[in-house]
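Homework help board

Subject: predicted structure for assignment chain

Our instructor gave us this sequence and asked us to write out the predicted structure in token form, then describe one feature. I got the tokens but I'm not sure how to describe them. Can anyone check?
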Amino acid sequence: MERFRTEKDRAKVRAELRKCFETEAEITCGIRIDEDKLRVGFAELPRIRRNGVEGALKSREILLKSTYSALESLMICVQRKWIPVLVGFESCGKTSTVKTLADLLGRKLISVSLSEISDTSELLGSFEQTDAKAKMLKTRNKLLDLFAEFRSGIKNEDELRIGFEIVQRLQTNPNLENLSCLKNFLESKFEVVIEEFTSLTSTTSKTTSTSSFKFEWIDSDLVEAVKTGKWLLIDNANSCPASVLDRLNGLFEDNGVLVINEAGGERVIEPHPEFRVFLTVNPRKGELSKAMRNRCLEIFIQGKFLNVSTM
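My token output:
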């Protein structure tokens, strides 16, 4: 029923359901946040730990009662691997609802905002000029960010001191040896990041074999999310040309894959089991293509989130 965009249409649906089942169509949602799971209405999902603690709301976000229904629908989509499209006008809470769910569950969320001039390179990646030094510095920054994220999970003071010593060496001398030291240190503490660190150091080792500039294919944030199992939010999905977004139709099929031909040769990427994608749409800017809408589940967000009576 949440896909209907007017109260008149929703009232008709409620009347038909009342006629068939002799009961009210809508049930008030409740929310329960436990240490290991989140329950909203009839939907339930596990919470994961990051930074040594479970997922939690950021200080800038407020959990309103009016968001419960949308959160429940999103959680059901996550459970069943459906693709939700949050439809609503400006400032109605589409993006913040997805971010709130990701924070509560401890999931990493990557946001990609599209516009009228967006093309497939923003979704898939492109060839960029790179050199070994720039690649090394980029890898170092990613490793330092990951250490900052996971360091609170290290309880032993001696181990934490060793970690800081490695970080200090890496900051002053970003070479492959120090990168590998930090990689190995964190791999021994957090098995969940082994694959990501291995990918970073192996890429760096290849680029250090030459000091000349060259053009190299760089995967987009979307492709990285597909490979590593992060959540992806595509904001303003209907702002770009329909042909651009339809490039992802194969990925959004049941048991679909992402095929990239632009990198020179065909690459077939199977999505990580934890990968999820969310779309937001402003109906003032048009609609998604029929091909895309057929692959998604629409959830209309009514602009009631700033109503104090719903808090």
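Reply (TA_rk): Your tokens look well-formed. For the description, you could write something like this. Residues 81 and 87 are 19 Å apart (CA to CA). That's the kind of observation they're looking for.
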